[in-house]
Amino acid sequence: MGEPLLRLQNVTAGYGDAVVLNDVSLDIAESGALAVLGRNGVGKSTLMLTIMGFTQMRAGRVFWRGQDISRQPPHWRANNGIAWVAQEREIFPSLSVEENLTVAAQRGAWTLETIYQMFPRLSERKRNMGNQLSGGEQQMLAIARALMTNPSLLLLDEPFEGLAPVIVEELIRAVKQMLAGQKLAIVLVEQHTDVALELTANAIVLERGAVMHRAPSAELQKDTETLERYVGLRVAAEH
Ligand SMILES: Nc1ncnc2c1ncn2[C@@H]1O[C@H](COP(=O)(O)OP(=O)(O)OP(=O)(O)O)[C@@H](O)[C@H]1O
Ligand SMILES: [Mg+2]
């Protein structure tokens, strides 16, 4: 096995004086997806923000393709292949769909054409302004815009939250397509445990800012004790 794409080594990080992540270590390979599970407030989004370089690191290091990038600012990371779709799904409300897509585009396999193939809804609405889209369409646009930077690593923070089931289905299909295509790694924060574990090969479970459990997703799917303890049994409870 070669170098991992991304490595967090004993990372302790937070906001100002507040430490949120505690001694987190993880490796992300060049292809495939990692699920990040855990209850509200355990530090899932903070982990994403730390990978992007938005938090204060107290200890530990972050490596990208073997290079220590602990001190690289967010824009360096964005320019070098790490894309992030925030939990708040920020799009530019006063730009058109197409302008949102092209504003940060970088060269690669993802182009307007391939994006519109994946998200026909965005093609139909390419001249609409960002603020004229439904919540689901805004989420598609946020993901599509991240893909247009042709990243090596895509961070998705609760991409299915609060969306209609039909939209969630479309997004799940899109994520599967992304993973089946060219080399791409995805970190998926998701509270819908069943969906998260279905889409990913490996999973980690956070509890109070620390990694409490790691397992292949297929294994964790059957480990109701761990899921009940650290994630809540949403799977059984909701169906
Ligand atoms: N900007 C910030 N400044 C200070 N503390 C913060 C900030 N953002 C988050 N926190 C704190 O960090 C902790 C972890 O929050 P985080 O948003 O990472 O959790 P989460 O697992 O993503 O939760 P959720 O499931 O609700 O999205 C919480 O205690 C939260 O209050
Ligand atoms: Mg969060």
TrEMBL record:
UniProt function note: Involved in beta-(1-->2)glucan export. Transmembrane domains (TMD) form a pore in the inner membrane and the ATP-binding domain (NBD) is responsible for energy generation.
SUPFAM superfamilies found in the cross-reference section: P-loop containing nucleoside triphosphate hydrolases
Residues annotated as signal peptide: none
CDD domains linked: ABC_TM1139_LivF_branched
Similarity comment text for this entry: Belongs to the ABC transporter superfamily.
Chain ranges of the ABC transporter domain: 6-233
InterPro entries for this protein: AAA+_ATPase, ABC_transporter-like_ATP-bd, ABC_transporter-like_CS, BCAA_Transport_ATP-bd_LivF, P-loop_NTPase
Keyword check for ATP-binding: yes
Biological process according to GO: L-amino acid transport
Protein name according to UniProt: ABC transporter ATP-binding protein
Entry's Gene Ontology molecular function annotations: ATP binding; ATP hydrolysis activity; branched-chain amino acid transmembrane transporter activity
Keywords from the named record: Amino-acid transport, ATP-binding, Nucleotide-binding, Transport
